[in-house]
Amino acid sequence: MATIPLKAVTLTDVRYQRGDSLGHFLAWVSLIPVFISLGGFASHFIFRRDLQGMFFYIGLIISQFLNELIKTSVQQSRPETCILLDSCDSHGWPSSHSQYMFFFAVYFTLLTYKGIGLSGVRQKCVVGFVPWPFAVLTMWSRVYLGYHSVAQVFAGALLGVVLGGVWFWVVNGLIVCWFPMIEESTFGRKFYIKDSSHIENVMKFEYDNARAARKKCSQD
């Protein structure tokens, strides 16, 4: 009976050369998209359930779907270093990690500039800058570790920037008009889905309301 070759799930299977401290660090950096998806957005859905965050994540899913579609169509091989990584059975152009991180960076920065959660210009500049070093490090890690060529990571980064900007416009220029209807729907009421788009500083709003509720409880 012929044996069927096995294929590993490569979500967290990031390899580096033994003893390479920089490679070890970049291997963890390469997992940032996983941390964002499983940690950041999962906790957001559980505890906040805000429509802006939900459509942010939907955009990332669409971006990754398009990445797989393009990879399947172009079918560009990974660099020769993929032989050592057992990843040559998948295509490399464009890099999905780079696309994910640059989509995230663009959308996050635009959302920060729009004022969701922040009101001061300095705060917006500082917070909006946060994801960009991680995006660049992720792009570099994919080349350093041998999973992609330079052209493949730059293609992913460029596609992520374009898709991130386009999706932000779609959500905040078109879909946002439907947010009140989603919020008031049976689904929205049952699962406590909320829209914070109309609030200038969400964090201050939630902070003030939490303090007011605590004071009311104390008085009662």
TrEMBL record:
Coiled coil: none
Keyword Protein transport belongs to the record: no
SUPFAM superfamilies: Acid phosphatase/Vanadium-dependent haloperoxidase
GO MF term set: dolichyldiphosphatase activity
GO BP field: lipid biosynthetic process; protein N-linked glycosylation
Highest taxon of the lineage: Eukaryota
UniProtKB keywords: Hydrolase, Membrane, Transmembrane, Transmembrane helix
Gene3D superfamilies from the UniProt entry: Phosphatidic acid phosphatase type 2/haloperoxidase (1.20.144.10)
Main location group: membrane
Pfam families cross-referenced by the UniProt entry: PAP2
Membrane topology, from the record: Multi-pass membrane protein
Residue stretches spanning the membrane: 25-47, 100-118, 125-147, 153-179
GO CC annotations on file: endoplasmic reticulum membrane
Subcellular location per the Swiss-Prot or TrEMBL entry: Membrane
Domain named Phosphatidic acid phosphatase type 2/haloperoxidase: residues: 51-168
Protein name: Phosphatidic acid phosphatase type 2/haloperoxidase domain-containing protein
Species assigned in the record: Kingdonia uniflora
Top-level taxonomy: Eukaryota, Viridiplantae, Streptophyta, Embryophyta, Tracheophyta
